[in-house]
């Protein structure tokens, strides 16, 4: 990731993406079983395909323009192939099918890295070549990602799949604004990474992977339940929490540049995401576990030791805006 971030030459940036892909494969297959291996192979195939398309776009651009500088992609076809390849790497629609499948098949820690850290390198390339991108293609990718990410998450019961569809939606929000105001893409990415890492850390600490298991979360850790609720509301973009800020600024920029239809579609698609976030919140905080056991309030006697990252991530992702 660092190699891609600091590179000025296309081959070095491509090399960083390749090493980044190969380095996460052992982490994804660490508890060696069939599901992890299958997910790792799916991830590798998609990333390798995207890398080859990037290499084709690099060579084609160098052949037409006679230069290898990262910031100058002046050829229209090279730009289009580069955009589609980065969309495959980021999991934008219509190349989004691998994201829920891979995230569902790997452990929570690997899923957290996949949905946060692995987005940095492709987004940095998209940010650097943003002046030469095609606006119509970006809007098509972004709107389809937000709509399909919202619709796809509605009928899911696995939390990792829900967070994967949430990732697809947030990548759409970042893509739509990268040509108009690239700084907002970076702001959205940082807030999304903070919120998603906090959710994954909460779920990992309580070993929760399904929605129906959340109904007993208050029994395990009441503070964790409140934390999860606040972070989910922030990720959904509810004011006055932090997640509202990038959505507000992106919609404002789109309206200033007369993209009213795009802004309306993005705003409506945000309601789909908010619906399945609210379903998680309802299950975890407003329903009681259907049992009459005498061992309630486990957290009162021995709560799980919270990691030091969770409070800081909560503050960043949920309480920065006020």
TrEMBL record:
Presence of keyword Coiled coil: no
Catalytic reactions of this protein: a ubiquinone + NADH + 5 H(+)(in) = a ubiquinol + NAD(+) + 4 H(+)(out)
GO cellular component, one term: mitochondrial inner membrane
Family: Belongs to the complex I subunit 2 family.
Keyword list, A-Z: Electron transport, Membrane, Mitochondrion, Mitochondrion inner membrane, NAD, Respiratory chain, Translocase, Transmembrane, Transmembrane helix, Transport, Ubiquinone
Stretches assigned to the NADH dehydrogenase subunit 2 C-terminal domain: 274-322
Transmembrane segments: 12-31, 43-65, 77-99, 135-155, 162-180, 186-205, 255-278
Function description: Core subunit of the mitochondrial membrane respiratory chain NADH dehydrogenase (Complex I) which catalyzes electron transfer from NADH through the respiratory chain, using ubiquinone as an electron acceptor. Essential for the catalytic activity and assembly of complex I.
Location of this chain's protein in the cell: Mitochondrion inner membrane
Gene that specifies this protein: ND2
Annotated membrane topology: Multi-pass membrane protein
InterPro entries: Complex_I_Subunit_2, NADH_DH_su2_C, NADH_UbQ_OxRdtase_chain2, ND/Mrp_TM
EC number, UniProt record: 7.1.1.2
Protein name, per record: NADH-ubiquinone oxidoreductase chain 2
NADH:quinone oxidoreductase/Mrp antiporter transmembrane domain span: 7-271
Organism: Isoodon obesulus (Southern brown bandicoot)
PANTHER family: NADH-UBIQUINONE OXIDOREDUCTASE CHAIN 2 (PTHR46552)
Pfam families: NADH_dehy_S2_C, Proton_antipo_M
Record flagged with keyword tRNA processing: no
Source domain of life: Eukaryota
């Amino acid at each position: 990731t660092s190699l891609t971030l600091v590179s000025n030459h296309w081959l070095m940036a491509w090399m960083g993406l390749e090493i980044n892909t190969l380095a996460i494969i052992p982490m994804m297959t660490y508890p060696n079983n069939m599901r992890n291996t299958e997910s790792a192979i799916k991830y590798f195939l998609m990333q390798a395909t995207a890398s080859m398309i990037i290499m084709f776009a690099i060579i084609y651009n160098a052949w037409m323009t006679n230069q290898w500088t990262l910031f100058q992609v002046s050829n229209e076809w090279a730009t289009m192939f580069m955009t589609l390849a980065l969309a495959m790497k980021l999991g934008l629609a219509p190349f989004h099918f691998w994201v829920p499948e891979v995230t569902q098949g790997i452990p929570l820690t690997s899923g957290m890295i996949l949905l946060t850290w692995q987005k940095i390198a492709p987004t940095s390339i998209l940010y650097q070549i943003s002046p030469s991108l095609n606006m119509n293609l970006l809007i098509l990718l972004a709107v389809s990602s937000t709509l399909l990410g919202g619709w796809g998450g509605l009928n899911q019961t696995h939390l990792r799949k829900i967070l994967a569809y949430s990732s697809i939606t947030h990548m759409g929000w970042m893509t739509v604004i990268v040509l108009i105001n690239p700084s907002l893409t970076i702001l959205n990415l940082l807030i999304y990474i903070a919120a998603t890492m906090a959710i994954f850390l909460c779920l990992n600490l309580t070993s929760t992977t399904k929605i129906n298991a959340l109904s007993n979360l208050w029994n395990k850790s009441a503070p964790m339940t409140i934390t999860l609720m606040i972070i989910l509301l922030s990720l959904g973009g509810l004011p006055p929490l932090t997640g509202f800020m990038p959505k507000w600024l992106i919609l404002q920029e789109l309206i200033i540049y007369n993209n009213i239809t795009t802004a309306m579609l993005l705003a409506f698609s945000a309601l789909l995401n908010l619906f399945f976030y609210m379903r998680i919140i309802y299950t975890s905080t407003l329903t009681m576990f259907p049992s009459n056991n005498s061992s309630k309030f486990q957290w009162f006697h021995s709560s799980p030791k919270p990691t030091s990252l969770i409070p800081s991530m909560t503050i960043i992702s949920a309480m920065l805006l006020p």
